[in-house]
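Hi all, posting the design record for the shared folder.

TITLE: backbone redesign
STEP: 1 of 1
STRUCTURE INPUT:
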């Protein structure tokens, strides 16, 4: 559309309209992420006295990119610019931005392998973490969460949404349900509902957690959650914080790779900021590691896809952290028999 035919659009109003438009298309978690990224754009617009998106051009968006590149890493910058592109494209469609503006947004290109390598709990690390927690915090919240995430590869949101009634420990499986009306949605909604098998060892840990360490509470909807705090169902932030804590190398008996003194380390002394440790990771790293582990032991891709509720294409592009050498050695097992 010619700029003369545009209708004035305030940035804050535009973001509100965008979020309302996307609310029926994406999960609440995704919408929250988009909102957070666009908040940074709104802050920049206010700083630059931009009150009408009609007047924003490609050079302005490039300046925003440079501004953010000084504050965040390359991965975060890519997420923000990718979201901004989708947002600007929406604004074009409602006559709020000049046509073609979205295509001027330059988003960094990432080396997917390096990203996967960093944000993954490898099998050897998972084994050490689980052994340490099993010895010193057996069937505590940290141990139970680590065991559940590693063996099942489920998303943190799915783990958080499990009720006691969803656990079938005698038959060794857990059911996952999409319950958005009571604040426990699944990322893929009803398509994410499934039963996931678990081992005898995991069943024993989960049962011991229930018997000894689970708080006997209901959530705000009268449901009996599996993972709890004294206040009710574990929150997303608390679950994430637990994983950041347990994945600090010093917390599972390893030397600090960065030669930090624990008495002076912010990530140790302030548990709420455990993510400040360069080697700590969030819950998704367990999922990525579990998927890689299943693939490395030659589990068929279709089985991994169904168990983890993720397409084979997405596994290949975003989750498979095996090196090319590891893939070659796996292929060799087949070729040697020909």
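Okay, here is what came back for every position:
SEQUENCE:
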């Amino acid at each position: 559309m010619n700029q003369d035919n545009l209708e004035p659009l305030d940035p804050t109003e535009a973001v509100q309209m965008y979020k309302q438009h996307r609310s029926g298309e994406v999960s609440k978690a995704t919408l929250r992420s988009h909102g957070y990224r666009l908040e940074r754009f709104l802050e920049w617009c206010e700083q630059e006295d931009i009150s009408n998106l009609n007047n924003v051009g490609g050079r302005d968006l490039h300046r925003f990119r440079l501004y953010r590149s000084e504050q965040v890493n390359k991965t975060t910058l890519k997420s923000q610019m990718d979201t901004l592109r989708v947002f600007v494209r929406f604004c074009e469609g409602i006559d709020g931005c000049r046509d073609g503006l979205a295509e001027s947004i330059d988003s960094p290109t990432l080396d997917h392998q390096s990203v996967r390598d960093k944000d993954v709990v490898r099998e050897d690390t998972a084994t050490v973490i689980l052994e340490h927690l099993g010895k010193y915090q057996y069937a505590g919240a940290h141990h139970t969460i680590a065991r559940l995430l590693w063996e099942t590869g489920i998303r943190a949101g799915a783990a958080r949404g499990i009720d006691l009634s969803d656990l079938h420990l005698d038959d060794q499986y857990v059911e996952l349900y999409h319950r958005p009306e009571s604040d426990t949605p699944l990322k893929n909604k009803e398509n994410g509902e499934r039963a996931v098998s678990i081992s005898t060892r995991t069943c024993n840990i989960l049962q011991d957690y229930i018997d000894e360490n689970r708080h006997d509470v209901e959530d705000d909807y009268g449901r009996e959650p599996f993972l709890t705090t004294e206040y009710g169902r574990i929150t997303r932030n608390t679950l994430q914080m637990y994983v950041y804590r347990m994945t600090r190398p010093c917390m599972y008996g390893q030397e600090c790779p960065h030669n930090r003194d624990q008495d002076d380390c912010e990530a140790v002394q302030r548990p709420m900021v455990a993510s400040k440790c360069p080697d700590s990771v969030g819950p998704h790293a367990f999922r990525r590691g579990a998927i890689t582990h299943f693939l490395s032991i030659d589990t068929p891709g279709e089985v991994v896809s169904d168990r983890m509720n993720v397409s084979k294409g997405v596994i290949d592009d975003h989750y498979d952290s095996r090196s090319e050498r590891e893939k070659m050695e796996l292929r060799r097992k087949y070729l040697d028999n020909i």
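COMMENT: The CA atoms of residues 180 and 186 lie 8 Å apart.
Let me know if anyone wants the other runs.
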